[in-house]
Amino acid sequence: MAEQKIDTNELGEKIVKVLKTIYDPEIPVDIYELGLIYDVFVNENYDVKILMTLTTPNCPVAESLPQEVEEKVKSLDMVNDCELELTFDPPWSQDLMSEEAKLELGML
Asked: Which ranges carry the MIP18 family-like domain (predicted)?
């Protein structure tokens, strides 16, 4: 039987779906559409590394939000491990929001 190979693009899509279930408590838009996720890396061992930011460094969920992201991504069957790196470089700005998020917040 051939070794089952999981498409990392497919896994990437599943990760994005999970990220879209996580909301910033102060803004009724998910963290993916807000532009808080800068990058998602998946290696051949299905270890995931997520580079993300928060709307501000003293965001009230600075402790819990990254933990929630890590736990929800780790809960995916195909994911071996998840490491989250928080960065404020570049700092988040409203320019990073998707059209969908801007529309949702009445900014368009």
From this structure: 13-83
